[in-house]
Structures are given as C-alpha cells and as structure tokens.
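Troubleshooting log. The previous structure file for this entry was overwritten by mistake, so regenerating from the original sequence record. Sequence copied from the archived sheet and checked twice against the printout by T.R.
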Amino acid sequence: MHLLWIFFVYMIVLFVIGVYCILATQNLVRALIGIEVLMKAVTLLIIIAGYASGRTSLAQALVITLIVVETVIIAVAMGIVLSIYKHTKSLDTENLTNLKG
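Regenerated output below.
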C-alpha cells in the first residue's frame, strides 16, 4: 500500500506540472506538451485505481484506449498549430487575436 501512495503523489505532481504548463505559457507547442503531461497523469491515475480495486485488466484496456485517443488528439492539435504557424509565422498565443473574423 505504501507504493500506491508514492505513485499517487507522483500522479498529483504530474497533474500540477501539466496544468501549470498549459496556463503559464503562451507558446502553443508548450501548451500541447502540457496537455500530454496532463494526460499521462490521468493514465497513471487509471492504473493506480485499477491496481487498488483489483481490476488491472480493465485498467489496462482503458489506458490503451486512452493512449490511442490521446495520440489522435495530439496529432490533430499539432496540425492546427502548424497551420496557425504558417498563417501567423509565430507560435505565440497573443498573435491569435489577429485571426478573429
């Protein structure tokens, strides 16, 4: 049970780092990295919950599904970021106000 608390603390640290990275930066790529770190915290939370409840096979299936969905979301978001970069020649979020219709 002691090992479970270590992983839980690690998951909370990852969550805080991910949220901080999303909120504190104005670079779109860094925000995507923050989303990725945040998703890894959620993945670890699912694994911890599966281990604590004794349903590791269900947790593994959910984590695999989450990894696939996360990959698709990051690929689409990176495509949008690259399109924004081609249009504005910058990755700064302050330049996105120029894109308003």
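The chain has a mean pLDDT of 91. Archived copy saved in two places this time.
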